[in-house]
Amino acid sequence: LKYGKVICRLFEDIAPKHVQRLIELVQDKSYNNVVFHRVIDGFMAQTGDVLYGNKKNNYSKEHCGMGGSSKPNLDQEFSETSFDRGILGMARSQDPNSANSQFFIMLEDGHFLNGNYTVFGKVTRGMKYIDQIKKGNPDLNGSVDDPDEILFAHIKF
Length: 157
Hints:
The chain contains two helices and eight strands. With about 160 residues, it is an alpha+beta fold.
């Protein structure tokens, strides 16, 4: 992020298909320059729309949040892992098997999400930078004007 480096640990043991998808998209550089299009103060910051969310390539404020990637949707991998501050969860539509590329980072605990969304990782360093991401308009479900972006994402094995 423009604020600093964020390091996450991925939970391959509880969400192997989702972790594999994230690795593929990071290796393809698909997340580079993708915006945090929905950020709700006290809740979460959502990003990962590689179809409509790339600030340098194909950004569309009207469509951002409706897209995914060219890859097929994933079946849910719900677990008993709690949605605590710093947890990474996969975004989806009302269909539990519709996760694709979008994900969110919990800004605060959100235990009402437990068992309903796939947890695939956790921020281990740099939450102070996540906290600085520009917040969205609460009256517009967290929609962000001139949103912050993931500058560069990479995987370290």
